[in-house]
Design a protein that fits this description.
Blueprint: E1 16-17, E2 23-24, H1 40-50, H2 56-77, E3 81-82, H3 94-99, E4 100-103, E5 109-113, E6 119-123, E7 129-135, H4 141-150, E8 155-161, H5 163-170, H6 180-201, E9 205-209, H7 213-216, H8 218-226, H9 231-246, E10 254-259, H10 278-284, E11 289-293, E12 313-319, H11 329-339, E13 348-352, H12 367-384
Parallel strand pairs: 3-8, 8-9, 9-10, 10-11, 11-12, 12-13
Antiparallel strand pairs: 1-2, 4-7, 5-6
Helix pairs in contact: 1-2, 5-6, 6-9, 11-12
Length: about 375
Amino acid sequence: MTGPANTKPANTGPANIGPTGRQVPAAGRADLVGSLLRPAELLAARARFRRGEIGAEELRAAEDTAIAAALGKLRDIGYAVATDGEMRRDAWLTGVSQAVHGFAADYPVSELRQADGSTVRVEWHTKPVVARLRKDGRFTEREFAFLRANAGGPLAKITMPSPAYLARACFKEGGGYDSQEELLADFTEIIRSEAAALRADGAGYVQLDEGFVLLAIRSSWDALSESGADMRDRLRRDIEAENACHDELAGAAVRAIHICLGNRTSFNATLGGYDRLAEQLFSELHADRFLLEYDSARSGDFSPLRFVPEGKTAVLGLVTTKDARLEKPDDLLRRIDEAARYCPLERLALSPQCGFYHGADDATMTLDDQWRKLELIVDVAAKAWAQ
């Protein structure tokens, strides 16, 4: 491997000293995005709950069992980061739509045409906003309380949808807001207040999800630009919204953003990259870690990583969650080496490209496949950042 030598153990990373003088724990060289596959028992319990055959307490017990087992497995593998796998959520933003009034009742369903001409039926996991938003309660409190109590030594990581993503993806004409900007202001306050509550709870690692995906996708950027939008100004406004949330955690927690290009297998044709965003995003966003999709050519090359400043980490999502086939360690080490030509090795880490749970209708691998991939990430990280 080329790049600067690192004297820390492979499963640790540089600590962050916040403005309060408190040392923020290191998140490690081996990271994971958030969601984990649900065991069959939990999927069955959730199906029974939907049919009214069991109550909320029985469903919660099934969730507790599945989460505790996953946390034990992550510790056994050697992860420095722990996640509940988002197993209390039907989809990655379910908690928000349950705690905040104003969303449509059901997830929209549509058919997508694939590159080969076939069509696939997709249940979208982002509900449109149909009325003014009103937050009635917390949406990570119960998740984080159990996670913190059961994580053990690893750093407990909690995820939330990004306000910038929510405003773009959930806006609907006639849905109670005159513009995406107006909706962004309300979503920013909702996520900011939850970040403040997580700080009070003692959260050590908070990640916002998919913040800039709709700008990273080339077709979206081009369409907005052709409509006359000032894309740099749009990016600036989104960064300001994200920073309002990240700043609530400054000096108290690792702050991360995950930029995804679409995790479901039906999105394989999506083309994107970070070249148009990198200089402005990496320098101006108040995040410590950028979890980036890099498992296929659709994400572009590593050259945008040259803009990652000192003190921040680019987490390379080189291991795919869309295919059960296990990557070869030497191939991953080679790609880390390629990335280190643009960004010092000490500013890099390794992870899956996205979460493992795409939805009950889009399974791509077994639980055993998932754990093998996570074991691979820890093993490769140990070699890449060896003393």
